[in-house]
């Protein structure tokens, strides 16, 4: 294989894949509790180039052999928390996740834009029940009275002060072992370690936003597009040069 073509093509693949990651982040710029994903660009080992003139070998430097996109990882920097005033909006300050019950098992999320289902239980907009130490969290109040949620996750009838349920925050030893799934959920794995209790606090009437910075993401997309175009031009130049050499060889023969 012509090394120049391979190097340019590998760069095009790297930046195309990176654009996909950035586009996904940008599409979730308004998703509560969303975490961005990144992947470092790695270079394949370089080759030492030398020139042979008879018995003499003269060094000519190093030559790159292409690049690849390493395994992607989730970025866990804190996302901004904003006031909404909605009593079922809950934000986690500090470490931790909400645990929710899905048909596929327990999943974790930082998105706290909850609702109350027909049975008076706290749930996600997709209908997944929010879990606490005692199971699904009851949050239905008599005659639609206001709801109060303490920093420790106790769900109270704001009128009578009666305890309705308790939300439990959880975490895992290694968050990079979590697997992202749809609906802004994360699946614990053997790599992430077992689910344990977390020490974060809950803020009622507030919502954690997306960790995506629209401006930063747009800047990265523009830079990635230019890098892709440069690699594309390099491939085209290599192709034209190869074609020219083949034509010259044909005329000589």
Automatic annotation (TrEMBL):
<feature type="domain" description="Flagellar hook protein FlgE/F/G-like D1">
    <location>
        <begin position="91"/>
        <end position="155"/>
    </location>
</feature>
<dbReference type="InterPro" id="IPR053967">
    <property type="entry name" value="LlgE_F_G-like_D1"/>
</dbReference>
<protein>
    <submittedName>
        <fullName>Flagellar hook-basal body protein</fullName>
    </submittedName>
</protein>
<keyword id="KW-0969">Cilium</keyword>
<dbReference type="Pfam" id="PF06429">
    <property type="entry name" value="Flg_bbr_C"/>
</dbReference>
<keyword id="KW-0975">Bacterial flagellum</keyword>
<keyword id="KW-0966">Cell projection</keyword>
<dbReference type="InterPro" id="IPR010930">
    <property type="entry name" value="Flg_bb/hook_C_dom"/>
</dbReference>
<dbReference type="Pfam" id="PF22692">
    <property type="entry name" value="LlgE_F_G_D1"/>
</dbReference>
<feature type="domain" description="Flagellar basal-body/hook protein C-terminal">
    <location>
        <begin position="203"/>
        <end position="246"/>
    </location>
</feature>
<dbReference type="InterPro" id="IPR020013">
    <property type="entry name" value="Flagellar_FlgE/F/G"/>
</dbReference>
<feature type="domain" description="Flagellar basal body rod protein N-terminal">
    <location>
        <begin position="5"/>
        <end position="35"/>
    </location>
</feature>
<comment type="similarity">
    <text>Belongs to the flagella basal body rod proteins family.</text>
</comment>
<keyword id="KW-0282">Flagellum</keyword>
<dbReference type="InterPro" id="IPR001444">
    <property type="entry name" value="Flag_bb_rod_N"/>
</dbReference>
<dbReference type="InterPro" id="IPR037925">
    <property type="entry name" value="FlgE/F/G-like"/>
</dbReference>
<dbReference type="Pfam" id="PF00460">
    <property type="entry name" value="Flg_bb_rod"/>
</dbReference>
């Amino acid at each position: 294989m012509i090394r120049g073509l391979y190097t340019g093509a590998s760069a095009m693949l790297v930046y195309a894949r990176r654009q996909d990651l950035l586009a996904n982040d940008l599409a979730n710029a308004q998703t509560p509790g969303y975490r961005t994903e990144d992947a470092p660009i790695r270079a394949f080992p370089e080759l030492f180039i030398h020139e042979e003139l008879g018995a003499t070998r003269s060094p000519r430097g190093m030559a790159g052999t292409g690049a690849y996109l390493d395994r992607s990882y989730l970025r866990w920097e804190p996302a901004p928390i904003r006031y909404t005033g909605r009593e079922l909006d809950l934000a986690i300050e500090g470490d931790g996740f909400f645990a929710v019950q899905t048909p596929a098992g327990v999943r974790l999320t930082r998105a706290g834009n909850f609702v109350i289902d027909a049975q008076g239980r706290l749930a996600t907009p997709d209908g997944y029940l929010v879990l606490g130490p005692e199971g699904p969290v009851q949050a239905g109040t008599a005659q639609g009275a206001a709801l109060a949620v303490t920093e420790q996750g106790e769900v109270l009838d704001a009128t009578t002060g009666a305890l309705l349920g308790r939300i439990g925050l959880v975490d895992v030893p290694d968050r990079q072992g979590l697997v992202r799934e749809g609906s802004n959920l994360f699946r614990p794995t053997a790599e992430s370690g077992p689910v344990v209790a977390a020490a974060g606090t809950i803020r009622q009437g507030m919502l954690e936003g997306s960790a995506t910075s629209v401006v930063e993401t747009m800047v990265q997309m523009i830079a990635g597009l230019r890098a892709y175009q440069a690699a594309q031009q390099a491939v085209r130049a290599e192709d034209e040069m190869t074609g020219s050499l083949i034509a010259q060889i044909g005329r000589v023969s």
